[in-house]
Amino acid sequence: MDQLFLQLVNGLAVGGIYALVALGYTMVYGVLKLINFAHGDLFTIGAYLGLTLFVGMGLAGTLTVFPAVLSVAVMVMGLTALLGGVLERVAYRPLRKAGRLSAVVSALGASIFFQNAVMLVWGANYEVYPEVMRPSTVIFLFGTGVPLIRLLIIGVSLMLMLSLYGFIHHTRTGTAVRAAAIDQGAAALMGINVNRIITLVFLIGPGLGGVAGVMVGLSYGQIDFSMGFSYGLKAFTAAVLGGIGNIPGAMLGGMLLGLIETLGSAYLTIAWKDAISFLVLILILIIRPTGILGERTAEKL
Amino acid sequence: MLKRSGTTSGTILQRVKFPALVALTALAAGLPLTLNPYWTAVFVSIGLGALLSLSLNVILGRAGIFNMGHAAFYAVGAYVTAILNTRFQVPVLWLLPVAGAASGLCALLVARPIIHLRGDYLLIVTVGIVEIVRIALINDVGGLTGGANGIFGIARPEIFGIRIRRDIQFYYLVWGAVALTVALFSRLDRSRVGRALSCIKEDDTAAEGCGIDVARYKLLAFGLGAFWAGMAGALFAAKMTIISPGSFTFWDSVLLFAAVTLGGGSQTGAVLGAFLVFGLPEIFRDFASARMLVFGLALMAMMVVRPQGLLPPALRRYDTRFITRGERAAGDGE
Known about the structure:
By secondary structure, chain A is mainly alpha-helical. Helices cover 74% and strands 4% of the residues of chain A. Chain A is built from twelve helices and four strands. Chain A has helices spanning 2-32, 39-56, 59-62, 65-92, 100-122, 148-170, 172-182, 184-189, 194-220, 227-242, 247-267, 273-287, and strands at 127-128, 138-141, 144-147, 222-223. Chain A is globular. Chain B is mostly helical. Chain B has a domain at 37-248. In chain B, α1 (2-34) runs antiparallel to α6, α4 (92-111) packs antiparallel against α9 and α7 (192-202) crosses α9 (214-240). The two termini of chain B are 17 Å apart. Chain A binds chain B through residues 29, 33, 35, 90-91, 94-95, 98-106, 108-117, 119-120, 229, 233, 236-237, 240, 271-272, 274-275, 278-279, 281-282, 285-286, 289, 299, 301, and chain B through 66, 113-114, 117-121, 123-125, 127-129, 131-132, 135-136, 138-139, 205, 250, 254, 257-258, 261-262, 289-290, 292-293, 295-300, 303-304, 307-309.
């Protein structure tokens, strides 16, 4: 029972990370119908930028843990958002009128570029987050010791998701984002600057992804240059699971995938851990391609 | 007017084509005599890449099915060859059709329930498949695949009593296979199946409306491409003599996907794409660890500059002499 509770917390924590990354995929897909393969690598870059800020700027020594983590998270968010905006401008905007295939290959090229850039800048080995930044406090809940950091991650990711949800559904700009996702042409006719909306989406998505990268560093301690691939693929799975293009769907899908994966590897088989999420992906696409919360839409002719 | 110029250029092309083909063959045959062993080996791996690109070209370039899991089918062919060869000493070349059939069959089984999915969804499912296959190979399914170390001691192929061992011999074997593949697939393009596939690629709803059984033709393309990839996998196993899960990753699928997309969909394009994707990093060797960085940049730049690919297939030409005057007039009136 204790074991189960701990696994649930772990599942939700990793699920929160998947969900934050999945939001970036789902928003871009919603507006551009493009799988941004480079998104996973922006997440990796977020993790490494966080490390550099912690270590290089000596934040770990000068500030106490909480303000240090907060300021690093905000800075990383800004930097990865900027990178996302530049990426859209350079690699995707020129291809908006061209076929989908060329945009996909451009995205793959960007992913290869970022991954190798990280490897060249920070090296090919594992990097370790400073121990002081990782609170090892254990909280006793229902008689089980739960690492505080996991709970914090669940809390922060939920908070970020809810604020994004509020932004998309209750502000003017958010409404414009939703309009651009439904029909870009009609949105443009209503006076919405679609280019600005797309740029905005490419700022928000990678920003959240970058924070998720810092969370992985804080939670697991270790980061490496190729981690964006598996996290990215699983986050994309989460987005599809919840219904791609659908923001609450990405949150639900992320949490669900985190739980499925953690419980599956704890109680079924650890060797097949990574295969579980892909199996879930294939099954959901066969049974319900629109995902859990996705609406069935008629294919446009 | 347009039609007439079309026919003239056609005859010129036909007149040029034969000598050009002879010259190209002579060049390809003579090339390894001038190369050092290192570059011969590079050309062998480019040739294997070209075979795989051509096989993916049927699926992605011709039928427009976004398959980013091609390495999975290539892996099935290589592992079937390796297992049957090391356990039962079956000669490698006899195993070519067996490897092809095994991976074609796998592809059909896997693709049957997902073939109706839209482009991007299919792409992500195939990514999932290639990862599941890799994890299965690492976990030593059925005690057959040798886990993370793979299988070693695969025999060299033998043709007419000659054991193919040196790179230069592999060069002729592999590039001979490439030439044969180009010839066969070009015939396929001009057949009923080829026309149906290009129709599906342009617009599968319209194709369905014209009475083409879209799902069946897509499955056919998928199966054929996987069959060919399986055979290429058998050659790969024979060349390497050691295979392990590390050779069949998502990134290998991505490289093939990029080669076909860069090529633009024609046979020549697929071979050219293989040269760019598998040959360019060798030229960039001077950049050492930065070569993949440069490669990623080059991919982006090439797509931005030429999104349709370098050599898209030529427009189909039909012989208009058989159309009667009345139909032609009606056609012009449209």
